[in-house]
Amino acid sequence: MKICTRLCLLSLICLPLLFTGCSTSRYSQKHDGAPKGGEIDFDSVADAIPKTEKLSRYGNPLTYVVRGKRYYRLASSEGYSEQGIASWYGTKFHGHRTSSGEPFDMYSMTAAHKTLPLPTYARVTNLDNQRSIIIKVNDRGPFHDERIIDLSYVAAGKLGILSKGTGRVEVVALTSAEPEKLPHYLLQVGAFQTQVNAIALKQKLLNRINYDTKVISARTGSGPIFRVQIGPFTNEKKAHTLKRHLIDDGFSGTIVIPSTINTSGERFH
Q1: How confident is the model at residue 179 (pLDDT cuts 50, 70, 90)?
Q2: Looking at the predicted structure, is the pLDDT value of residue 164 above 60?
Q3: pLDDT digits 0-9 by tens, 235-246
Q4: Quick one: pLDDT at residue 60?
Q5: d(CA 40, CA 143)
Q6: pLDDT digits (tens, 9 = 90+) for 17-44
Q7: How many Å apart are CA 13 and CA 9, to the nearest integer?
Q8: Element (H, E) at 133
């Protein structure tokens, strides 16, 4: 069998025998690392948003072998929780195909895991600084006994483990019912009595940021009100960071509100 440069490039093809004889993996490769260029504002990168997805056609064999060791895919991610060491991967594999068939994007909130079904959404917490993120597991690895998860470059940056290379983490899988229980935060940039003014502010924001921005209509005792909101965010710190950026950019009325107290209404696109 042709020597594979990375386990994930095989795409697993749902056939365990493809792993037999795979003589190397991405962990024997050199020159992986961070991208060159300016610093990235990791707090501005949104967490993965958990959602119900079908299992990938690739990457989910019941069992597979790497380096002579056999791994067994979990039947379900429900109840999965584990503490251990996280590592990360970046430029060497950016754009390459992951085990789920998706291209690896080191700037996305993704990760590799040996046995969780693909995809699985999980909360990863750095046990040393208590930073917490939500990622999508769409790849296989890391194939080191002492490591339990391999994070994308950006995910590792948000957790604060880039410089050290590894970190102590807790990984908790989020089931399809879990996302509704996650705390969410919205940025409210303005509220208007006329829809046209709200839509104008929304467009102004879209020219500056790349976040989900919407106009929500609600009825009050004095008539309709149109709220311009950004989000939701599952990371409160990230919401406050963007709030500061918007205030510095002239949007002085921006506030952070928990989505649970947000007045519901009709959404205008």
Answers
A1: very low
A2: yes
A3: 788 888 899 999
A4: 93
A5: 28
A6: 333 222 233 433 345 666 666 567 887 7
A7: 10
A8: strand 132-139
Burial of 122 (0-12, 13-18, 19+ CB in 10 A): buried
Strand, coil or helix: 73:
coil
Quick one: tokens of 114?
Answer: 């040996």
For the chain, the residue count is 269
Q: What is the pLDDT of the chain when averaged over all its residues?
A: 79
What's the N-to-C CA distance of the chain in angstroms? Answer: 52
Q: Return the bridge partners of 258, or none.
A: 185
**Domain 183-268 -> CATH class:** alpha beta
In whole angstroms, what separates CA 103 from the centre of its chain?
14
Per-residue tokens: 93: 């594999």
Centre a 10 Å sphere on the Cβ of residue 249 and count the other Cβ atoms it contains: 12
Instruction: Say if domain 7-178 classifies as CATH 2.40.40.10.
Output: yes
Q: What average pLDDT does range 76-105 have in this prediction?
A: 89
Q: Full-prediction pTM beyond 0.90? A: no
Q: How far is CA 30 from CA 27, 130, 137, in A?
A: 8, 31, 23
Domain ranges in the chain are 7-178, 183-268
Q: Produce one character per residue of 164-183: b if its CB has 16 or more CB atoms within 10 Å, e if not.
A: eebbebbbbbbbeebbeebe
**211: CB partners within 8 A, 6+ apart:** 46, 230, 231, 242
Nearest-5° Cα angle at 36, 49 to 138 = 30
